[in-house]
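Anyone able to model this chain together with N-(iminomethyl)-L-glutamic acid?
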Amino acid sequence: MYGITISSSFGPMPETVDRLFIHCKELVPLMDGPPCGARRGEAMRSVDVIEDGAIAVRDGRVVAIGTTSEISAAYDANDVLDLTDTVVIPGFVDCHTHPAFAATREEEFHLRCAGADYMEIASKGGGILSSVRAVRAIGEDALTERVLLHFDKFIAHGTTTIEAKSGYGLDTASEVKSLRALTRAMAEHPLTVSRTFLGAHEVPMEYRERRDDYVDLVIDEMLPAVDRLCESCDVFAEPKVFDAVRSERILSAAKVRGLRLRVHADEIEPMGGAELAVALGADSADHLAVVSEAGIAALAGSETTAVLLPGTSFYLGKHRHAPARKMLEAGCAVALASDFNPGSCYTMSMPLIVSLACVLLHMTPAECLCATTINPAASLGLDAEVGTLHPGKRADFVALDLPSWKGLGYVFGGNPVLMTVKDGEVFGV
Ligand code: NIG
Ligand code: FE
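re: yes, here you go
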């Protein structure tokens, strides 16, 4: 058993906690490594399984982890939940999402099914820009409601922490509105949220012929207006969107303002995005479908997490996916995320992302466990709080309907989540 028990001169005495979760068929707390820091290489492949496992929780935190007989002997609670037949793992940490949108884009999906290309749709004012029109038109209250609906669905899919980007406003007022909607939704919702300003998600129509003016607007007007409403800044670093020079200008200015950095890097055309992210000390370089060898080497020698988004390359019908095996073997810190957004990936299911990572990226279920929990938590600087079930961390975990932990990835297409526990509180699905 991992945790602290109190004893008296009369012998061990059960300690009272708020809630006990007992009889997990398998409990995988990811405690066979340090509580903090991303895991790399071999460390991503070891999985600690406690059969008939149990968790003691008080004040929303993990007090102790062990077998049901160990925990029941050491702890008492009025509230005891039986998790028989479930596999319990830390709550998923989804470190790349775009939930601040006002309308879905199924029409665009139909165009893509009929053969249209994602970037071609974007260049004609569709894609991200159609979401921009919808966000500019909606009020802050209605956008907050929409974000709350998205937050509920993350919890329903077993995700307890997300990174959430703005980026469908692309003018100062609408970017502020998006980050305020995220902030208000966070205050009302149990999900842990790390906010990212993505004013450089696309160049709005009105700036298409004067891109540098838009970069100036992001730096001079937007960043000062948003820097207290977010933790990080991101840029869609892509040759035809924000090239290396423009991306570097925006990210450097954000860094000077004290923001952490994340980068949409090397998704569609190679641009040295990963190298740029590493050079700027970014927390993450995301997508990486077309990352170069030099980019992989740079990531491997850095603290920048490689965030892979197989849902997006799948959903866009790409045949080229991020070279995950090369990155894992080079020693990169690898995380997986959903990229939940209305255009290029409409899912918030991390279990589905794990299936796609196993099949398309050739990652193992064990690697995927780390890549959806502790590694993304580390990339957000939240690893002291979430990502494993070490005592003292938030009691964030998910009970899954799987034959064993090895069924993660193998079972796909439905939602295997039976219960999500966030800060010790139970959310049934
Ligand atoms: O990460 N690549 C840019 N941004 C999103 C797509 C957003 C959208 O299409 O609405 C992404 O895939
Ligand atoms: Fe994205």
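The pocket of fe (iii) ion (ligand 2) is lined by residues 96, 98, 264, 339, 341 (CB under 6 Å).
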